[in-house]
Each structure stands twice: as C-alpha cells, then as structure tokens.
Amino acid sequence: MQSESPSKDLKAHLGKSTERRSLEMNGSYICPVCRHGTLEAIVLMDAYSCHFCRHIFTADLLEQTVRVEDSSQPATWRWMGTQWQATNRVDVDLTIAVWLMGAVISILPPALIWLSSHTFPPLEDSGWSWFPTVWIALSFSIHFLMVAWLLVEHYQLPAYVALKVRLGNLFGMR
Ligand SMILES: [Zn+2]
Questions:
Q1: Residue where a domain terminates, one of 68, 86, 104
Q2: φ and ψ at 83, to 5 degrees?
Q3: What is the rounded average pLDDT of the residues 89-112?
Q4: Which of 9, 84, 122, 144 is the most buried (most CB within 10 A)?
Q5: What is residue 14's predicted lDDT score, i.e. its pLDDT?
C-alpha cells in the first residue's frame, strides 16, 4: 500500500502492541484487571469478558471506556489506543480507612506484647527470657502479612489478581 508510511510499516513489523487502534466490539484487548488475559466481545451485548480472569466488562465505545461489572471494586478504564488508563476516582475514604486499619493491625498487637513484657520483664536467669522478643517478631510478621493481603486486595494489583486466578484453576475452584 502506497498510503502507509514507512514508520507505520516498521511498527506493524515490530508487533501489534505498538499500533494505535480504537476500542471496537470486534477487537481484542489485554484485560485491564489481570493484565494477562484478553478481552473478547460477548455476542449481542456491549460487553467483553476476559478469558483468563473471567471478569465481565461493559463497553462505552463513544467514551472508549470499559467498566468492570462483577467486581467488589467498581473500576473504569479508558482505552488510549495502545493501553488502558484507569479513570475511576479512587475511593479516598476507603483508602484512608484501609491504611489506618493496616497500621493499627500491624502495630497494636506487637506493641501490647512489648508493653506487657516491659512491665513484667522475665526473670534474668530464666531460660524463657528470649520468648517475648520472638513473640513480638512473630506477632508483627503475621499481622503484617494480613495487612499486605488487605492492601493488594484493595488495590487489586494485576499480578495478585493473575496469581489468584492461577491458584483457583490449580485447586479446581472454577
Ligand atoms: Zn483478566
């Protein structure tokens, strides 16, 4: 084709990911949730589904956006020609609550143990004098893990979502 510029040929040669295209119902796009599967149109509906994480998205072709419909976190993405851009306003109140709760959950229990072991220190010659330190460390790491899970669940990190789907497939939960 004469009309195509050399740079476009080069881009086509490099792969489809560099090619700008608009959001259409018959196109296929990478899933904005898991960043792993592809979105495919659901027949007779203005909707897509991801073949990997199975989320359902409704499409607004005028706005070039998709919205995930079956998630606890309502989210919208705009198609920028080559990639998605999150357009949903982050729920600030919820985010603050999650971080506050995370701080309290990870700090309070070890702090209480530290306080009690400091108020009533173990006897110097006791064989169990190491116990409070280990207990504090253990308590902190377990609670920190809980908070880390809470945060990735809140932010729905693509790597975490993809891992969850893989584990689900592995244990036959789907
Ligand atoms: Zn997906």
A1: 86
A2: -155, 170
A3: 90
A4: 84
A5: 44
Distance 18 CA to ligand 1 centre (A): 20
- Ligand 1 centroid to residue 158 C-alpha, Å: 9
**Residue 63 alpha carbon to ligand 1 centre in Å:** 21
Q: Residue 41 has what pLDDT?
A: 93
CB within 8 Å of 83: residues ≥ 6 apart:
30
Q: What's residue 127's pLDDT?
A: 86
Q: Output the CA 164–ligand 1 centroid distance in Å.
A: 11
Supply the pLDDT for residue 27. 87
Cα 5 to averaged position of ligand 1 atoms, centre (Å): 34
State the residue range of the domain holding 121: 92-170
- Boundary (domain end) residue, out of 53, 86, 119: 86
Condensed to tens digits (0 to 9), the pLDDT of residues 50-86 reads 999 999 999 999 999 999 998 877 789 999 999 999 8
Residue 86 CA to ligand 1 centre (angstroms)? 15
Residue 165 burial (CB < 10 Å; 0-12/13-18/19+)?
A: buried
User: For residue 173, what pLDDT is reported?
Assistant: 61
Place of tokens 């499409």: 59
Distance in Å, CA 165 to ligand 1 centroid: 9
Residue predicted with more confidence, 130 or 90: 130
Question: How far apart are the CA of 101 and the centre of ligand 1, in A?
Answer: 29
What is the CA(28)–ligand 1 centre distance, in A? Answer: 12
Q: Where are the beta strands (DSSP E) in 75-128?
A: 75-79, 84-86
Query: Both 18 and 41 in a single domain?
Result: yes
